[in-house]
Amino acid sequence: MGKEHKYLKKFKFTSNPNCHCRCCCPCCRCKCKPPFLPIPPSCHYLVYVTDAGQLATPDNRVSVIDTATNTIVATIPVGSAPLEVAITPNGAFGYVPAFFSDNVTVFSTATNLPIATIPVGIDPLGVAISPNGTLAYVSNHGSNTISVINTATNTVTATIPVGLQPQGIAFTPNSAFAYVANENSNSVSVINTATNTVIATIPVGIRPRSIVLTPSGQFAYVTNENSNSVSVINTTTNTVVATIPVGTGPVGTAITPDGTLVYIVNKGNNTVSVINTATNTVIATIPVGASPDQVTILPDGTFAYVTNQVDNTVSVIDIATNMVIATIPGFNGPTGIKTGTICL
């Protein structure tokens, strides 16, 4: 290459495309170094809690917990008496049914501000977002229907009749089916999301409240509040294959990301039951606050957060030890709870 420039004499060149530069220093033995990778953004988890208030004095906000500090860092105005919340899979938006307003508030997690209000049926209660992020299903407790919301347009595209007083909703991992707990029919409706029709109705215990599916989609766990039990549904056959005794008045439920543990909130005796999904047995019972309602588990499977409606607190459970490691104050009749992720 002719006469070398004096500043290049101590460097050797390489054509290896995996190197981050085309020269390397002999003092490093000319080892090719891997390319520089962008530093990943700083991400951490937020937990969104609906403050429903009390029957005589309903509230209208969602409180946001920063899990790095376990403190409330923001509040979001929504409709009257919000009971549940769902966060889109990409973490960008939250959907909150307002029981007394007959609508759903959509908020941006980036700004913690409402961006849309969607009219739905009577007394909307439960909400779930399909794993592919395209649909929000809202259970209308007073009109015995499911409102189907297109999340791209935030409009209702269908209304599906189900059982009496529908509440909890869960989608299969492929978004093909939705399972709905019908509180006053003692049943679970199975909806084909492509046709928006009920394809099966499964008898369960008395007053089913919430439902969660395993990550594989093979089983659904349904809390039966007045039976003090959890029904396990095989989603291939849509039949109950096990019934698990738990605490008094089970309502909320969540599953760990690896699918090994299901956490059941027992409203009647202020505890959380932990179910081993391999054996379908309770392996731990955790005392929490007064009148606990719902539970969410962080995506990394480290902690569970439980709303305590009468205490106006949220209990934080260490999943490794199944012990409460923090109690967060400052809520007003907290009920619904879900996890989101924020990246700075």
TrEMBL record:
InterPro entries: Haem_d1_sf, Host-pathogen_enzymatic-act, Lactonase_7-beta_prop, WD40/YVTN_repeat-like_dom_sf, YVTN_b-propeller_repeat
This protein's UniProt keywords: Collagen
Pfam families (alphabetical): Lactonase
Keyword match Ribonucleoprotein: no
The keyword Coiled coil appears for this protein: no
Coiled coil: none
Name the record gives this protein: Triple helix repeat-containing collagen
Species: Lysinibacillus capsici
